[in-house]
Amino acid sequence: MGFTSFIKSKQFFFSLITAVIIMGLLVFGALQFLNIYTRHGKEIAIPDLRKMKVENAMGAVAENGFEIIIIDTVDFNPKYPPLTISDQDPKPNDAVKQGRKIYVKINAKGYSSIRLPNLDGRTLRHATAIIESLGLKKGEVIYEPDFAKDVVMRIEQDGRILRAGDKVLKNSKINLVLGDGMLGYKPEVDTLGEMYEDVAPEIDSIF
């Protein structure tokens, strides 16, 4: 039987139909397997784990097969209790599949300490910007006699003079002692008034 005759035969036609059916069944089976393997349509809302201790959070997600992974300990945030979860990924109420890993960040036990830079001779504006960038707060501004105005003479905290390199806790207040610009200042003299005051007694004495 020639090739042309074969493709026109019923045997070829039935073989082609059988091959198409088999391929269709294989594709259908593969899709069903993928749906089952990926748990298609069976998504679960992530609970809000913030403000929870890690061990408590693990218990809260265990039944859904979630795994908690700690990725970092961040600077202390007063909005969250110490050593509790302050951030999570996926976010609360996100819909995910069972068994998903949840990455969390832990709030530090307390404020960390930093070393002070040298602020002597800085202007009030510049010193304030540096303090705030370090996570500190500007406290009282105290003026003392000095030639320069609004320039830092020293910094203090709780009555203690601080120097460059000293450690202080973040979020604490730093008091700034500034010059008032009045040292060596001499007000202008009213020359005409002084002359009148000097001459006036002599004029009075004539009469």
UniProtKB/TrEMBL annotation:
It comes from the Bacteria. Pfam families: PASTA. SMART domains: PASTA. CDD domains: PASTA_pknB. InterPro entries: PASTA_dom. The chain crosses the membrane at residues 12-34. The keyword Nucleotidyltransferase does not apply. Keywords: Membrane, Transmembrane, Transmembrane helix. The keyword DNA-binding does not apply. Residues 41-108 form the PASTA domain. This is PASTA domain-containing protein. It comes from Paenimyroides aestuarii.
